[in-house]
Design brief:
It comes from Bacillus glycinifermentans. This is MYM-type domain-containing protein. By secondary structure, the chain is of the alpha+beta class. It is built from one helix and five strands, in the order E-E-E-E-H-E. A hairpin with a 6-residue loop joins strand 1 and strand 2 (about 15). The protein is about 15% helix and about 30% strand. It has one helix at about 35-45, and strands at about 5-10, 15, 20-25, 30, 55-59. The chain has one domain (about 5-59). The radius of gyration is 12 Å and the shape is globular. A three-stranded antiparallel β-sheet has the order 4-3-5, covered by helices on one side. The chain has a two-stranded antiparallel ribbon with strand order 1-2. The structure holds zinc ion. Zinc ion binds near residues 14 and 33.
């Protein structure tokens, strides 16, 4: 009986469990462990979007 993660980090694919604080990208509807993961992902996708639109949320 595995607990289903509430979200998956779009950068490192780590499971993010309920209750954790994460960085959420509102525009792309993606979750990240933290700002560092978001920055990694953003660096790979910089050509597609040049903006930062995230917020810290508690799952
Ligand atoms: Zn991550």
């Amino acid at each position: 009986m595995d607990a289903k993660p509430a979200a998956i980090c779009a950068a490192c694919n780590r499971a993010i469990n309920e209750g954790q604080s994460v960085t959420y990208d509102l525009l792309f509807d993606r979750y990240f462990c933290d700002n560092a993961c978001w920055s990694d992902w953003y660096a790979d996708n910089e050509a597609e979007h040049r903006r930062k639109w995230t917020e810290e949320v508690d799952l």
